[in-house]
C-alpha cells in the first residue's frame, strides 16, 4: 500500500476537534492545499467531499497532511476508523481514494489519500444536500 499523505478538509483541520485527537504528534508538515473535481456538502457536524465529473469543476480547500513515517500505519488505521471506512464495504459513508491535490505553498501537484462520500451518500447529497459554497468548511 502506498504511504500517501492525506488531504483533510473538515474536522481534521488544524484547530478543529479531531485534529488534536488524531493528528497531533503523528504528522510532519501540514500545509494548505486544494482538491479539484469535488464539491463540499454539509453533513451532520462534518462535511463530505462529493466527486464531480471532470467537466463540472469543483474546488475544496483543506490541508495536506504528511504522516510521520514511524506512525503511518497507526494513523491510517485511526483515520479509517474515524471515517468508518472499510475496504469494499457497501455500507461505508466515505471511501478512501488516491487523488491529486495542489499544495498551495509551491503549486506542486501531490498524490494524497482523500476520504470522499461513498457512492450512495454522494447520490443522496447531490439530490438533497446543502452545498458549502466556496468549498471551504471553515470560511475565513
From TrEMBL:
Family annotation (Pfam families):
GGACT (PF06094)
Record InterPro entries: AIG2-like_dom (IPR009288), GGCT-like (IPR013024), GGCT-like_sf (IPR036568)
Q: Which residues cross the membrane?
A: none
Q: What superkingdom heads the lineage? A: Bacteria
UniProt feature coiled coil, ranges: none
**Residues of the Gamma-glutamylcyclotransferase AIG2-like domain:** 6-138
Identification of the protein by name: Gamma-glutamylcyclotransferase AIG2-like domain-containing protein
Amino acid at each position: 500500500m502506498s504511504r500517501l499523505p492525506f488531504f483533510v478538509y473538515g474536522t481534521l483541520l488544524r484547530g478543529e476537534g479531531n485534529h488534536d485527537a488524531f493528528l497531533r504528534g503523528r504528522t510532519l508538515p501540514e500545509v494548505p492545499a486544494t482538491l479539484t473535481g469535488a464539491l463540499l456538502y454539509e453533513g451532520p457536524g462534518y462535511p463530505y467531499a462529493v466527486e464531480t465529473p471532470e467537466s463540472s469543476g469543483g474546488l475544496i480547500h483543506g490541508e495536506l497532511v504528511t504522516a510521520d513515517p514511524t506512525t503511518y500505519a497507526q494513523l491510517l488505521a485511526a483515520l479509517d476508523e474515524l471515517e468508518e471506512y472499510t475496504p469494499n464495504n457497501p455500507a461505508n459513508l466515505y471511501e478512501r481514494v488516491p487523488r491529486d491535490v495542489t499544495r498551495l505553498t509551491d503549486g506542486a501537484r501531490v498524490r494524497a489519500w482523500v476520504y470522499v462520500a461513498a457512492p450512495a451518500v454522494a447520490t443522496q447529497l447531490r439530490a438533497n444536500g446543502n452545498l458549502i459554497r466556496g468549498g471551504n468548511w471553515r470560511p475565513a
